[in-house]
Amino acid sequence: MIKIGLISDTHGTMSPRVLKFLEPVDELWHAGDIGTVELADELAMFKPLRAVFGNIDDYVIRRMFPENLRFVCEKTDIFLTHIGGSPGHYAPQIRKEIYSNPPRLFICGHSHILKVMYDKKINCLYMNPGAAGNKGFHHVCTAMRFRIDQENITDLEVLEFERNQFQQITS
Predict the structure, then answer these.
(1) Among 47, 101, 52, which Cα is nearest to 77's?
(2) What's the CATH code of the domain at 36?
């Protein structure tokens, strides 16, 4: 069993509240728009990091991380990307793979809106952790953590706080 912390859209900023929430996790997954190399390095020192680049990430971050990441955690097939759409409205660049070879867990960011739902059509759990950073159009900062035990995804927890309560530790 492994405990996962999931964030996205940090845009170079991270609040101590998010780090405190993520303290008990074993791995940290970032669904893109990391924002700065400094933050990527800080997150990688904090917890083992798996990440993809997002549309705002520069060429340096794009060299550090892939656009899409497909891997197995425990016995669960994971697909992580930044711009992925949502069930029934998947982004064109990933639609073919999602439908022809669906993962057990599909994770994306980009929307700045936390959403978790089950796609019955392809037997896949969809997660978007919203936005953990202080830049963007969102009013609420969010992060998620959950457990993966073999093929089971359980114990989902959400951190949510008003963006005006953001205390920045990284710029």
Answers:
(1) 101
(2) 3.60.21.10
